[in-house]
Amino acid sequence: MSALNTASIAGLLVLCLASAGSLAQDPPAGEATATKRIPLKTDLLDAAYVPGLESVVITGQHGVVGQLKVSESAAKLELLAKHPDEDFTCLDAISDKLVLIGSATGKVYSYDGSAVTEIAALSEFNEPVLDISHEGDKIWVVGARGLVARSSDGKTFETVEIRDVTQPEATFPGGQPADWYFGVSNIDPESVKFNATVGGKPAVADTDYTFYPDEGFVQVANALDENPKPTVSFKFNPGPAFRLGDVSWNVVLVSNGKVTIAGEFGMVLQSEDNGETWIRRDTRIVPHEPEPAYWLAGTSKGDEIWLAGAAGISSVSRDGGVTWTDNAHSGREGIFGITLLPDGKPLIAGAVGLIGVQDGEAWKLADRTQLHLLSWLKTPVTMPDGSVLVMGGRATAIRYKDGAWSRVQVEL
């Protein structure tokens, strides 16, 4: 999988997740009004169908909160007149009538169809909330710089510090002399269990190999036996070397009592005890500097979990996250949103109007010219009739129904 440079990642985040500060110039303090802050073309950054409101609730930059009333050929966007002076980044409908909204300054708000109310400030450094997910009364919020929080009532939140993550025993694909990277840093050296032999005898530290726990690799000097293959297990703290916890968590999924989070450095972590302990998934040991995925979106249904991200990458697990399979790339454009259709096929949306459905092992992409796509797409929402409405920048809305794509005019 291809890695992105810092500039590319920053561009993706500004485009689809909103910046940490408002993009408007010199915004007024306190509340803003829709007429003052709404740009000519409203970006529909995140959305969810809310049955009790009989509409799609949308959020976006400049405090945009509204209800999209969808008909067969058009959609009327009714914007909330009074709202906090915030850029909103994500949302999740936690009941038939209540929506939680995350902001670019680390706050969580509620929306009940008539007003937006601040609930909690989760980030000491005003880092953005990037995803919200729930199952029953278990609500999880994740964001930049290691932001992870949980709630059991949607009103009070507890921040979660992720430390001492378990790396299950992983097998090396080879044993040749090389720098073998584990894809994580900040390893607890006392927890390392490295099993390898050289010529049938246990490999000797600092002679046959040298372990670098902070940087996350082992330097093999003498070829290790490949029968049996070398293995390693350990505990580590997420984040780049010497910067514990400094990870952008862009995805959180809650299903079957299991919490899955993913984001920078291709990292996928899971907890089955409400965040008390964590285990790493999708481990890859490579004999060179790793090129990890950069996860931006995810979806789950039962034991099936999909993750998608930068450069058109996506992976799927069908055993609850224990093992993963890479899919064919959809192209070079980043995938910002993904959902599963009623027939189980994944639908993706992303940069430069990327939109498509998996067909066999390949992706069948929509004709962007025919749909007059001029902006990014991010948020697929399943409607009551089984169709999917995909939304994005410049008030773009595309419907996928019965295998066909059509444009839905959004009236502001």
Summarize the structure.
The protein is mainly beta and 412 residues long. Helix content is 4%, strand content 44%.
How would you portray this structure in words?
- With 412 residues, the protein is mainly beta.
- It has a domain at 165-236.
- Helices cover 4% and strands 44% of the residues.
- The strands form eleven sheets. The protein has a five-stranded mixed β-sheet with strand order 2-3-4-5-39, with no helix packed on it. The chain has a four-stranded antiparallel β-sheet with strand order 7-8-9-10, with no helix packed on it. A four-stranded antiparallel β-sheet has the order 11-12-13-14, with no helix packed on it.
List the helices and strands and how they pair.
Layout: H1 6-16, E1 31-33, H2 34-37, E2 46-50, E3 55-59, E4 65-70, E5 74-79, E6 82-84, E7 88-93, E8 99-103, E9 107-111, E10 116-121, E11 129-135, E12 138-143, E13 148-151, E14 158-159, E15 165-171, E16 178-181, E17 193-195, E18 197-198, E19 201-202, E20 209-212, E21 217-220, E22 231-236, E23 249-255, E24 258-263, E25 268-271, E26 279-281, E27 295-301, E28 304-309, E29 314-317, E30 325-326, E31 335-340, E32 346-350, E33 355-359, E34 362-365, E35 377-382, E36 388-392, E37 397-401, E38 404-407, E39 409-411
Parallel strand pairs: 5-39
Antiparallel strand pairs: 1-6, 2-3, 3-4, 4-5, 7-8, 8-9, 9-10, 11-12, 12-13, 13-14, 15-22, 16-21, 17-22, 18-19, 20-21, 23-24, 24-25, 25-26, 27-28, 28-29, 29-30, 31-32, 32-33, 33-34, 35-36, 36-37, 37-38
